[in-house]
Write a structure and sequence with these properties.
Blueprint: H1 2-9, H2 25-38, H3 49-61, H4 67-70
Length: 71
């Protein structure tokens, strides 16, 4: 466990704070842009259901080319 922690200690960290009570399409797009820009190795969602849902949806949608048509 210590080796795993030390590996991530030397990485760049980015944080995204949920802005609304309920997830919105605009918020998903903002997170997708952040994911594309930073190309994270790991995404951690801390909070309730909406936070976790935003992380999961954004992580899956950032690979999709025509997101607007799907959503």
């Amino acid at each position: 466990l210590e080796k795993v922690f030390l590996k991530f200690l030397n990485k760049n960290w980015n944080f995204y704070y949920k802005k609304m009570n309920f997830p919105s399409i605009n918020e998903v797009e903002g997170i997708v842009k952040l994911i594309k820009k930073t190309k994270p190795e790991l995404i951690i969602a801390a909070g309730g259901g909406a936070v976790i849902d935003l992380a999961k949806v954004s992580n899956n949608l950032y690979r999709v080319k025509n997101r607007k048509k799907i959503i």
